[in-house]
Amino acid sequence: MCLPPIPTFPSQVSAENGLACPACYVENSRRCLSDEPLNCVGNENRCIQYLKQELYDGKLTIESFYGCTTDSICRLGSSSKKFLYLTNETFKTVKMDMSCSGGMGLSVPFLSYLGFRLVGLMI
C-alpha cells in the first residue's frame, strides 16, 4: 500500500506587500481594461496578464484577466492542450497564454496607464 506524504502548503499572508497591478476580468474578449489597481498581498510579487481560449464543438470561448500572482505561477508559462472526449469522440482545445511582469512598487503597466490619465487631465 502506497501512502504519499501529506502536502504542506505555504502560509497564506494577507498583508499588502507594496506592489499594485492592473486588475480586471472579462469574458469573450482578448483584453480587458483596468481602472483600478489591485494591491498585492503576501508573496504575490509579479503582475500577470492571462488569456484562455477554449475551442469545443465549433464554439470559441475566451477569458482574460490581469492581476497579482506569484513566481511559481509565472514559471508554469503558456500552454496549449487538446483533450479527447470519449463519450462523443470530440476534441476540446484549451490554449492558455500568460505573461508576467516584475513587481517593484507600482507595476510598469499601471504607471503607464496612470501617466496617460494624468496627461489627459492636464489637456
UniProtKB/TrEMBL annotation:
Q: Which UniProt keywords apply?
A: Phospholipase A2 inhibitor, Secreted
The primary location reported for this protein is secreted
Does Zinc show up as a keyword for this record?
no
Q: Does the keyword Secreted apply?
A: yes
Compartment list: Secreted
UniProt xrefs under InterPro entries:
CNF-like_PLA2_Inhibitor, Snake_toxin-like_sf
Under the cellular component aspect of Gene Ontology, which terms does the record hold?
extracellular region
- An example Gene Ontology molecular-function term: phospholipase A2 inhibitor activity
The protein, known as: Phospholipase A2 inhibitor 25 kDa subunit-like
Lineage of the species this protein comes from: Eukaryota, Metazoa, Chordata, Craniata, Vertebrata
Give the encoding gene's name: LOC116412380
